[in-house]
Amino acid sequence: MAVPKVAIVGRPNVGKSSIFNWLSGKMISVVDPTAGVTRDRVTQLLFHEDRYFELIDTGGIGIVDSDDLSDDVENQIAIALREADAIVFVADGQMGVTPLDQEVSEQLRKIDRPKLLVVNKCESTRTDLELPNYFGLADAEVLQTSVKANRNRNELLESIVNLLPPASEFEYEEGTELSAEPEMKLAIVGRRNVGKSTFINALAETERMIVSEIAGTTRDSVDVRFELDDKAFIAIDTPGVRKKKSLANDVEFYGLVRAQKSIRRADVSLMFFDATKTISKVDKQLVEEIEKSYKPCIFVVNKWDRGLEEKMTSEKWAEYLIKTFASMRHVPIAFITAKDSKNIRKLINLAQSIFKQSRERVSTGLLNRVVEQAIDRNPPPMRRNKRPKIYYATQVATEPPTIVVKCNQPILFDPAWKRYFLGFLREELPFNEVPMKLYFRPRHDEEDAG
User: Fold this and answer.
1) Residue 298 is inside which H or E element, if any?
2) Which of 147, 177, 207 corresponds to the end of one domain?
3) Which of 115, 140, 274, 336 is deepest in the core (most CB within 10 A)?
């Protein structure tokens, strides 16, 4: 790969994720006093002094994971170190050098890569006097930083750039491609342990995320770039969500918030269900969040191989979903087995199709011919002894397709008739499988959304 990679490593809770977010200029990794919050590799493409490089945040070396995922975390760190062109070794300037820092140091000495030792949390100049105590941790430049006090951020970026290998002839070209907007962003959403990370790994064709039978493995929302048919996409892997009253700590609360943000910034949401489990309250909360965002969505029934073993049929599952989510009848349904990469390409093609639908725009002439057909087939009923009248309609926006209907009095249109009307428009216009916004407006200034 032409763009060099820089891994941030160190023992737990020295501020690696804080430094990662600080250099990235935005909140990406979850930051929490709890040791071991970061488990997966989290990456961000940065550009400084005419150089592109990929910054990689990793879990704490030596962490005893509460869910017995220590080996998985260590494996992710090992992958990051193996791929890294340079290493940023972070220590805590307030705690002093610990035995675990020494262990990390010994591990890193065996790796022949350029290194930088960053002594973090140096908010006060009093910590400067302790700096010589850290010199033995690495045969490398030593730099003091403080995310809290915004100390030496630019110096840190410059030091990292100085560690990079000479720029290849393709670095700028590839960096520009990686920083370009992808074809589509997919939010991978679902309750815990439905196979979201397995799906991401299948897309990326690498052990990009930790995949485990333990529920709630992913704590960060992680963007994974992948390519299909020479087109670039972003898959946003979100933390598994459980009921709000069951949130055990701040880390899980952040996970819930990040799942909501991921839905909002994605182009299409893939709502995952486990073929062997019934629909839960958490599933309903997530679907409600997707519905509120007016995002195109696909219901993805994963672990379909197990569903077939239990004599389940796609017709039964489709009926179950439609019955549970009546207001989302337009949402297409896909059946996949992520661990075997079965039907994944079809799912991405379907996502592209509905994303395209959400960006369609129809002419006012076509729209009004369809409006006339809807009225001819089922005229709006009288209300308050008055006849509702539609004068014309026009599409005013896309993503979602948004239609304004000019009428005599919006209040005269019965809610049931509005649902019929919206369904008719969806069927007759190129918006079959995507959410739409429909507003009834009087010809003058009176406001009444439908």
Assistant:
1) strand 297-302
2) 177
3) 336
Q: Is residue 186 part of a domain?
A: yes
* 392, β-bridge pairs: 406
What is the total count of domains within the chain?
Answer: 3
Q: Are 80 and 114 found together in one domain?
A: yes
> Alpha carbon of 320 to those of 70, 192, 275, 323: distances in Å?
39, 20, 11, 5
d(CA 154, CA 143): 11
Query: Residue 198 and residue 337: Cα distance in Å, rounded?
Result: 9
Residue 65 in tokens = 């994971």
Dist CA 20 CA 48 (whole Å): 15
For residue 428, give the amino acid letter: E
User: What is the side-by-side strand order in the sheet with 86-92?
Assistant: 42-48, 51-57, 5-9, 86-92, 115-120, 141-144
CB of 92 closer than 8 Å to CB of 14? yes
CB 211 within 8 A of CB 40: no
